[in-house]
Amino acid sequence: MRHEAELTTDQALVECERFVLRPPKPSDAGLLTYYTGDRRVAEETRSIPHPLPPGVSEAFVRRAMDEDRIEDVWIMDDTDHVATDGTGHEVLGVISLTRLDRNQSQLGYWVAPPFWNTGLASEAVLALIAANPLGNDTIFAEVFQDNPNSARVLTSAGFDYVGDAEAFSVARNSTVPTWTYLRKMG
Fold first, then answer.
1. Residue-wise pLDDT tens for the chain (186 aa)?
2. SS3 assignment for the chain
3. Of 12, 14, 15, 186, most Cβ neighbours within 10 A?
4. What does the domain layout of the chain look like in residue ranges?
5. What is the C-alpha separation between 125 and 121, in angstroms, rounded?
């Protein structure tokens, strides 16, 4: 597969039906900047600022490629799974697992706006859960309460609701109510 020569981490490649989940590479920074510069994407995350300052995407890719990283990041990439319109897209979105203690991780993801409502988030979450690349016992996730579509992605993937909380969103510059979920693995 063409991606293997480009991998710079020991991170697992995860095959999905319509795309592959692969580690980030420096050439992803341009499309990551383009998509995360969209207020709608930034405001559904804790950490993406809006407006997006120069260099943020490049720094994100460097952190994701660092061998001492605490977050494994995968790019949703369909360049090897050409779409019906004859095109492949190198960056459809991002999904990640941030390592926690006690063999647990926190799941995070976003999909680029041109690909919303296409089932990509569900497919990525299900594939990552099935692969369980970090060998987790438990995976947590949270979504902002004003994003019920993300909550449906999680519940459809077998996550159980465990409670309400709050998280700070850099793009919104405020604390936002969240729903928290967990999935026991194995």
1. 434 334 456 898 999 999 999 999 999 999 999 999 999 999 999 999 999 999 999 999 999 999 999 999 999 999 876 555 556 789 999 999 999 999 999 999 999 999 999 999 999 999 999 999 999 999 999 999 999 999 999 999 999 999 999 999 999 999 999 999 999 998
2. CHHHHHCCCCCCCEECCCCEEECCCHHHHHHHHHHHCCHHHHCCCCCCCCCCCCCHHHHHHHHHHCCCCCEEEEEEECCCCCCCCCCCCCCCEEEEEEEECCCEEEEEEEECHHHCCCCHHHHHHHHHHHHCCCCCCEEEEEEECCCHHHHHHHHHCCCEEEEEEEEEECCCCEEEEEEEEEEECC
3. 14
4. 2-136
5. 6
Query: 3.40.630.30, 1.10.1040.50, 3.40.47.10, 3.30.70.20: which CATH number matches 2-136?
Result: 3.40.630.30
Q: Give the type of residue at 155.
A: T
